[in-house]
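Hey, weird one. I pasted the Cupin domain-containing protein sequence into the form twice and got a warning about non-standard characters only the second time. First submission, copied straight from the form history:
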Amino acid sequence: MNGVRVSVGFLAAGMATVALSCAPATDHASGKVPVAAVTSERPSETLTPILEQAIPNIRGKTFTSAIVNFPPDARAVPHRHGEAFVYAYVLQGTMRSQLGGEPARTYHQGEQWVEEPGAYHVLTENTSKTESAKLLVVFISNTGDALKVPES
């Protein structure tokens, strides 16, 4: 048993040595931990289309419904939905949303919002760091247009 403890100790020491030897030399001298080692990117959302169908009585328009899952602490990048009219309904959790030129608002399960064509979606985030959030999103878009266009 003591041999196992000693081996685990040597293994841990070896791993720490390898990790330190991979850091840039300036980090060794300053004694600071590299920023990349202590920060992480926030998770993002996943959009899963449920139904996509041309609208028979409105030429050139498509109806798309989707479920958008936001893991804990997830945030979408600022984006637009092209010329789509968007309806979002909170199925689960609590979301914070902000459109360009408007204040941020918090939406709870059962609440909804709409986005006019061309709206700039500055902020969309799950407010919880421990619970997932889920949206039902409906798009009325020009047939063939991308549903989400990230702003650069």
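That's the output from the first submission. The warning seems to come from a hidden character in my clipboard, not from the data itself. The radius of gyration is 23 Å.
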